[in-house]
Design brief:
heterodimer, A: mainly alpha, Cytochrome Bc1 Complex, Chain D, domain 2, two-stranded antiparallel sheet, 17 helices, 8 strands, 5% strand, globular, B: Ubiquitin-like (UB roll), DNA polymerase, domain 1, 2 domains, three-stranded antiparallel beta sheet, cell membrane (chain A), repeat (chain A), Cytochrome c (chain A), Cytochrome_c-type_DH (chain A)
């Protein structure tokens, strides 16, 4: 190799190292999840206000297992550690990523395949540092970067609850990650850079309600793990906190306080209803992973905790999203009129035909359902997403919310419609009822299906 | 809910759970069994009734959402001009085979005819695609709609 090439290679190499160091420094030094708030933090023990951690007042005198149950629900352990329709907490839930799949583990007290032999110290290390008893590292699909803010007492209450469950013998499924993602040792570097191993610190300049909400959102519900975009190192980028991101084939929308693209324009009662029942007027029904969050976790929060959570979420600064403003007016009553008529006018009427047969009966040609406000498409964030990610997923998987009131169900069309048909109907409805028609292809839908697949 | 339902121009006092589908109320409480239960998930159209003139799937419409809007069922649609024309054409062309879906077909067809007196094939597709017929009477349904509209002999 000539000297000139070597020199270029050396300069190139040095530049890459320098860029990596700069990017690394920028990300490592990135703000923590609560750094946006005015005021400094103090250690929990030094905080004078009412305790922001633990269970609500009404449950303080309940048994350890009962308290653990409330906290396990607040931390939403069940949804990822349970295969849909499978044994609770027995693991096997798939996280499908472009570079392979990770499967969640069995956290029932089975001694061979679960966590039956875990000591308190081992449990705390797994939940808060992502380190298993044998020293190997967990993938950050386990949100230990958020759970790290949990107190010892709360994490151990959750352990007591898990240990009270019937043990299920269910061996872990082997992950299917390719190189270099299958090198668990590298995860130590990831944790060193991105997981602070730090407990929750309240902010005395914020209200007690805000502090409780911060604990619930960050240490427990780990909202940011889906709603905050990730940086080049796949760590949460809190400079864009709650600005929205796509995970497992679903779009987690912007929940910063930005007016239209976030939740800035939502009424507080709508936000509370959405989180606790999975539905709010003119905002549609929580579906996919967010629907599961409501089903398994948020609907169990006490009204005070819900209020605290809403207070905290609303305090997160606005980050403008990249989606167009929502269309809030109904489409014309006739199928012949409206924006999607142009799409149909192009000669491609497949989406319109599918809509007429399978969708119009509930959703109406106007998008405002005569049957239930929950089936109204007009004004929802997902119908106004020109990516149509969630629209396609809802068509495939349907909606099955387990909420006490109303009928929140939509049949799954994933088996009766092929990829091309799902794309056609998604493109049609986003054009007819949303801000801008999507351009999904058959291949896009195939990809979305595989990302959300559980088997 | 406890209230009054306007069905086919007659007021009925009804006491039912809020989330009970209108179809249950019509069939089990008011004894109007002309409207059929098909799929129960608004996918087949057999349960179609008119709510304020619009065709809706009564199997998923909570009775509490009806309010004071008038409901018209297959038992009463013959008193509307479009409904009378549809029923006459249905009889003349002997549209039904087994007949189970036909109440819903006539309800959707008469709502179409009331708004679009001379529907094209595309209009018929858009309005009727959500009404499924296991016997495959679609061609006769299309012909009957056109006969009722006076656009075909």
């Amino acid at each position: 190799m000539s000297g000139k090439i070597l020199r270029i290679a050396a300069i190139g190499g040095a530049a890459i190292v320098a860029i990596a160091a700069a990017v690394g420094g920028w990300t490592v030094l990135g703000p923590g999840p609560m750094a946006f708030a005015k005021g400094g933090t103090v250690e929990l023990a030094a905080y004078k206000g009412p305790s922001p951690t633990g269970v609500p007042a009404a449950l303080r005198s309940a048994s350890l297992v009962k308290r653990g149950e409330y906290l396990a629900r607040a931390a939403d352990c069940a949804v990822c550690h349970t295969v849909p329709g499978g044994q609770p907490y027995a693991g096997g839930f798939a996280f499908n990523m472009p570079f392979g799949a990770i499967y969640s583990t069995n956290i029932t007290p089975d001694k061979e395949t679960g966590i039956g032999n875990y000591t308190d110290a081992q449990f705390l290390d797994a939940v808060r540092k992502g380190i298993r008893p044998d020293g190997t590292r967990l993938y950050p699909a386990m949100p230990f970067g958020s759970y790290t803010y949990m107190t010892d007492e709360d994490a151990l209450a959750i352990k007591a609850y898990l240990m009270s469950l019937p043990p299920v013998k269910s061996p872990p499924r082997a992950n299917t990650l390719g190189w270099p993602y299958n090198q668990r040792a590298l995860l130590g570097l990831w944790s060193a850079a991105f997981s602070p191993n730090k407990r929750f610190e309240p902010n005395p300049e914020q209200s007690p309600e805000w502090n409780r909400g911060a604990y619930l959102a960050e240490a427990m519900a780990h909202c940011g793990e889906c709603h905050t975009p990730r940086n080049i190192g796949l760590a949460l980028n809190n400079r864009q906190k709650f600005a929205g991101a796509t995970n497992a084939g679903w779009r987690a929308h912007n929940i910063s306080s930005d007016g239209d693209s976030g939740i800035g324009n939502w009424k507080t009662e709508d936000l509370t209803a959405y989180l606790s029942t999975g539905f709010a007027n003119s905002h549609g029904v929580a579906s996919g992973p967010m629907g599961e969050v409501v089903d398994y976790s948020l609907r169990y929060l006490t009204p005070d905790d819900l209020k605290a959570l809403v207070t905290y979420i609303r305090s997160v600064p606005a980050v403008a999203g990249d989606l167009p403003n929502r269309v809030l007016t109904a489409a014309p009553a006739s199928y012949k009129a409206g924006p999607a008529a142009t799409l149909a006018g192009s000669g491609d009427r497949a989406g319109e035909r599918i809509f007429a047969g399978a969708c119009a009966g509930c959703h109406d040609w106007t998008g405002v359902s005569p049957l239930s406000p929950a089936a109204t498409l007009t004004g929802t964030r997902s119908i106004n997403d020109p990516g149509a990610t969630n629209v396609a997923q809802v068509v495939i998987a349907g909606v099955h919310r387990q909420v006490p009131q109303d009928i929140l169900t939509m049949p799954a069309f994933g088996h009766s419609l092929n990829d091309k048909e799902v794309a056609a109907v998604a493109n049609y409805v986003t054009a007819r009822f949303g801000a801008q028609g999507s351009r999904l292809t058959e291949a896009d839908v195939r990809k979305l299906r595989s990302q959300a697949a559980q088997q | 809910m406890k209230g009054t339902l306007q069905v086919n121009g007659v007021a009925h006092d009804v006491e039912a759970p809020d989330d009970m589908p209108l179809l249950w109320v019509l069939r089990d409480m008011l004894g109007m069994t002309g409207t059929k239960y098909g799929c129960g998930i608004a996918q087949c159209g057999a349960c179609t009734v008119h709510l304020d003139g619009k065709p809706v799937r009564s199997c998923l419409l909570p009775v509490s959402a009806v309010g004071d809007k008038p409901v018209v069922t297959i038992e009463g649609v013959g008193t509307t001009p479009a409904g009378a024309k549809a029923q006459k054409a249905w009889i003349e062309l002997d549209v039904p085979q087994c007949g189970y879906c036909q109440s819903g077909q006539i309800m959707s067809a008469s709502a179409l005819l009331a708004n679009t007196p001379a529907p094209t094939d595309a209009d018929i597709d858009a309005a009727m695609a959500g009404n499924i017929c296991r016997c495959g009477t679609y061609l006769r349904i299309r012909a009957a709609i056109k006969r009722a509209a006076g656009t075909q002999a």
